[in-house]
């Protein structure tokens, strides 16, 4: 069953986001403070401490970088683009990772070009994010199937992986700020993606079966 993912109550989202940011930033700051104290009392210069401190600063930096996009919406740059070309441009950026993982991208494109009015950079950000998540979900070689087609008055792109899948009870958490199951994840990718698709008056849906795989489907109104 497909679940609509854009039904979050906005205020609740802002509240969660604020709580999340406070929490995510406090941890590295506490740790930085601790190391400063340690270095003061030690009086010894410790390269290892500096390494950890540097890493903590990177964490705070990455959170701030991702959130800037929310705080200061860039002027929208809507142009007519065809979805296949946008997707192929994303593929160039991900080629290395796809090759390394021995994943095959299976393209199922409709014959006609599917043109939508969109902000290409933002849609690219969404597609890269979804393909990256698909790659992360796959533990070994397999296929990612990308379908681009027309459904009613929408252009539709679906990205199907053969990864670990998402347990049913976690589906509602997707797109909540900082929800991640990855040790190196920040849990902001889907939140940003949902926001971008919403700005395009589009829809995003997910269908997943643990142990089998996941399909994310995006639809954007067609330009006529
Ligand atoms: P991050 O990738 O940093 O964890 P995201 O917001 O992109 O942040 O994803 C949040 C979580 O959603 C992931 O940690 C993962 O648990 C789950 N997820 C997203 N896409 C997939 C997928 N294709 N297959 C399995 N789980 C997924």
Automatic annotation (TrEMBL):
Nucleotide-binding found in the keyword field: yes
One example GO MF annotation: phosphorelay sensor kinase activity
Main EC class the enzyme belongs to: transferase
Catalytic activity entry: ATP + protein L-histidine = ADP + protein N-phospho-L-histidine
EC code(s) of this entry: 2.7.13.3
Keywords from the UniProt entry: ATP-binding, Kinase, Nucleotide-binding, Phosphoprotein, Transferase, Two-component regulatory system
Histidine kinase domain segment(s): 20-224
UniProt name for this protein: histidine kinase
Originating organism: Perspicuibacillus lycopersici
Residues of the full protein shown: 137 to 360 of 360
